What does this fold into?
Amino acid sequence: MNKDEIHNLVKEQQSNICQIVAIKNNKIVYSDTWNEFKSTDNVHIASVTKSIISLLIGIAIDKGMIESVNQKVLDFFPNYEIKRGEKTIQEITLYNLLTMTAPYKFKSEPWSKVCMSDDWTKAALDLLGGKSGITGEFKYTSLGIHILSSIITKVSQMTTLEFANRYLFKPLDIESRKSYTVKDKEGHIDFVTSKSPKENGWFCDPDGIATAGFGLCLSAIDLAKIGQMCLNKGKYNNKQIVSEKWIKQSTTPYVKCDEKFAFMQYGYLWWIIDDKKKIYSAIGDSGNVIYVNSDKNIVIAVTSTFKPLVFDRVDFIQKYIEPNILKCSED
It folds into this structure.
């Protein structure tokens, strides 16, 4: 397919896609937009935010601010009051948060309880633990890992937003993000569901701590830069942004997921699509994706407006975008 054919196919089959950028051998070979979005417009990238938080944790470890992923979560919150009889929380580590193997005392995420509270970090900590102990079971959460953003804030003595701007976005030539907050539940829902271009921001809790599980707004070209940096083992423009060791660790599979998650494997807040071919992705609701194929030296970034239950975006990339991007570059 040529570029026009891909454009029409996306329009017909993946109607909420806003932007696609593809890089092959460190060169942009395909870029297009839909739904009246410009290439520089920001989109809420939803759970792709998680993989960005993973990179920030890696940077904090690289800088010696965090000792290792084996540190206990409560080491960072010495004043947290443990509930009577609660023992499990005392054993939970950063590794458990990063691999989604931390146990939580909920069946479905209590969005209103956490997001309407004055202290999101305490509310998230209150969810940790339970009588079953640490079983290694995969339990995907967007609220529980807010704790990771709080840890970055504590160890760096700057907000996660400031930390990201200084150590990740600026070195990648990505414009600094600004804090975005809302006053009520309606504002929160509008932020997630609105289909207009977003502000140049990152959703933050009442204490100014950036959300870890969602909330970051970027363009596809921004996502492509992040993916290319990961593909280049943490380097961008010959500068080491994140250590090669962390990129390798965070894209190593630790958990095998079930049918609900398409039998994918999970690293440190990254989805492992094919471990043998070193294909991994950051995946967010509505089909926002950073797709990295180390075997073919390809990065593909996709941004999308809100649309529930989009589960086929990686399949779409592999079936239609990845095989045709070189043809488009030759048009």
